[in-house]
DNA sequence: AATGAATGAGCTTTCATTCAT
DNA sequence: AATGAATGAAAGCTCATTCAT
């Protein structure tokens, strides 16, 4: 049976296993990610695994929750640095792409979650959507969101756009070194998405949401 | 070794296996969809499977290609019935949701493909995107697509919106019998998506793409 | 059930299967030599196989008997061309090596027979031994075999020497093109064994058997 | 993955599996010696097998190497107890037959190795041959080997004689209880081969090798 | 005479999990 | 807290053989 670690040393062991599990799940898929492999990579015995996690399924769910927390924190951090509502949204979007670029595990693990742990996947999407909805409601209050737009529907649309663009231009391009081409150096500046794609995407998003649609936004790069 | 069936009887057997495999993969996931289960459901011997497919992986890829073909055909059929360009796009979108509602297998199988057969998944998305791009280019020619919108980016955004909305409002709602609640009777009228959601989504899409953005479209139901 | 072929065409089919089976058994071993592979190589349907052989085991035994017949014929033909008794023996030996060089299948198939069809293997060795025994008895009558030598024991010793030398210097050397190095052109002259090894072997054999032992034989090359 | 046992308990388990595998391979042949059968006979779970051996092929090779080591040790032990060179050779020969009589597995497994693990089989023969060559070279130095005899060729001839005689008079006779008939009691005295056959064989060998050939040796029994 | 579709037992191998130490 | 030996069910896949055509 699993339990919370009682000592600091135990805490470190548990964290190491969780970390390694994330990588292994992402690289090999849930089913090929055997406990043997995970424990070997974490340099612990197989039995040790079961001190901290009740089952393979359980680590997987933990991994999903962990990733969800991390990506949401990155998005919140980025958007709360902005003052304008849509500017905040744009910043959050960019943060999402950056996270994806830095943690391709996110995608691959979420894909698996559809089968392995559907309820946790649902939570993942719902929590991100909630963040978008909150942001859009705030924008609405400030008159920055077109009246005819439903924040709920818009939130899921934004997520879909982000996920698909992330897959297409971040993940698939990654081996080609797209990020490097951007010439950006600090993580804050690295957009994840190629800048022209990011701009085109934001233009589309802003046309959809902004009350003053049709007015092209300035071509800022995220 | 697998081979193409040489007799009509063989052709029927192969088709039955492919069909059953689609269901089983969708219901249980690639890993739990054992050959034993597939062949039992298809009511053939296990060896028979290997007359027509070289491996489990191979049927899976075949299933993905088959679904891709079917969904694209449904979309093309629906949109080519319309005359206006964006009307065609709207019709294709609706067809996608209907297909999703009728074949929830599509989603679940594509999610798995990310891990099981990434190159085939890529083909799947690229082929659908190509369809959108072609439609949007045609719309551009007729002045129905805003100048500042990149058809490529828009295509992937549309796919993302469709996929996310389909997951959220078609798949997740399905056990609740949402489709039934709609009161629609013929498959043509069944929108897949609840009509108010479909409308809200189309409003957002049309704001994003149409040159006359900001002008709310009338609330047609797909 | 299998039956003897009734037509000439059937005879050809059966012969083709037997021939192909010999090759496939030699190349892949009894167990990896599947009926599918054999029939495919023979370009007949799987069912056709069972028109001529009752089972896989049966073809194998037939193959063993066939090879035994062929190697004995080669040996008899070679030795009956000689007049001296030990000269005949030497010629038979050489024929054995030549056959081995030309049909490496012989070895590989006999090795398998130990497990797959032990009684047929026994027959194989006993028949060859019988040939040697007959030759040695004739030599004894002509005073060409030392009194203290038991023909039965000598026969099996000769077979052992031939088999081991064939394995060591014919089979194992074969990829190195040892036969080619000999510069011999007609099959009759090709010794199978490198000539210096063949001579050394014959010297040893003749010392063992000849009544005038210790008298080195002239270094003829087979 | 297989690994060396890390505890004493593991060492015992591995040894038991290796031992049982030798018997099962000899009795049923490589192919019919299923892992299920081996592990059942060793009274361990199937998975346990794979803790110590990577595959069926791997145990088989290990078994071959193990047998090779044991038979060579038996031969060396027997021949190093003798002082005369050819006496040593004779003692080694006898040891070989005794080993064969006590471990019929040797033959049956080596036959299989031709197909299953040819390179290991080759090592097996080469190592034994090396032993003979060393012995014969030493005999040559002491003037106990005829000048015209090539030690290399003689070594392989001796192996061939030993193998064939062992097959014919040890293995094939065994079910008839030949060894028992010999009336020998201690393993040292049990010749493996019926004494008259052993003597006849040694006579032949000594004629072939000894510089004073033609001089019948006294009919000592091994 | 010839075929190829169909079968299911049986193979090797993997893996999450338990437990004694 | 940590380990690694042990397990056995279950997986994917092959194959000799049968049989309807």
UniProtKB/TrEMBL annotation, chains A, B, C, D:
An MF annotation (GO) of this entry: transcription cis-regulatory region binding
Keyword Cell wall biogenesis/degradation: no
Keyword annotations from UniProtKB, A to Z: DNA-binding, Transcription, Transcription regulation
SUPFAM superfamilies referenced in this protein's UniProt entry, alphabetically: Homeodomain-like, Tetracyclin repressor-like, C-terminal domain
Leader sequence residues: none
Pfam family, one: TetR_N
Record has DNA-binding as a keyword: yes
Top-level lineage group: Bacteria
Ranges for domain HTH tetR-type: 11-71
Gene3D superfamilies (UniProt xref): Tetracycline Repressor, domain 2 (1.10.357.10)
Residue ranges the UniProt entry marks as DNA-binding: 34-53
PANTHER family, sorted: HTH-TYPE TRANSCRIPTIONAL REGULATOR BETI, HTH-TYPE TRANSCRIPTIONAL REGULATOR RUTR
Protein name: TetR family transcriptional regulator
């Amino acid at each position: 049976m699993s339990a919370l670690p009682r000592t600091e040393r135990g805490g470190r062991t548990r964290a190491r296993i969780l970390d390694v599990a994330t990588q292994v799940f992402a690289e090999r898929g849930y089913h090929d990610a055997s406990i043997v492999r995970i424990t070997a990579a974490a340099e612990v015995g197989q039995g040790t695994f079961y001190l901290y996690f009740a089952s393979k399924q359980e680590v997987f769910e933990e991994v999903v929750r962990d990733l969800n927390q991390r990506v949401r924190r990155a998005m919140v951090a980025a958007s709360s640095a902005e003052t304008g509502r849509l500017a905040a949204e744009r910043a959050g979007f960019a943060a999402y792409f950056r996270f994806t670029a830095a943690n391709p595990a996110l995608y691959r693990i979420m894909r698996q979650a559809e089968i392995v742990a559907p309820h946790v996947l649902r939570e993942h999407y719902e929590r991100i959507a909630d963040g978008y909805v909150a942001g859009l409601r705030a924008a609405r209050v400030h008159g920055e969101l077109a009246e005819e737009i439903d924040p709920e529907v818009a939130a899921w649309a934004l997520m879909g756009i982000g996920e698909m663009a992330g897959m297409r231009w971040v993940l698939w391009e990654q081996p080609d070194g797209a990020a490097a081409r951007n010439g950006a150096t600090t993580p804050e500046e690295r957009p994840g998405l190629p800048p022209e794609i990011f701009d085109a995407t934001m233009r589309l998003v802003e046309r959809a949401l902004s009350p003053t649609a049709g007015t092209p936004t300035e071509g800022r790069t995220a």
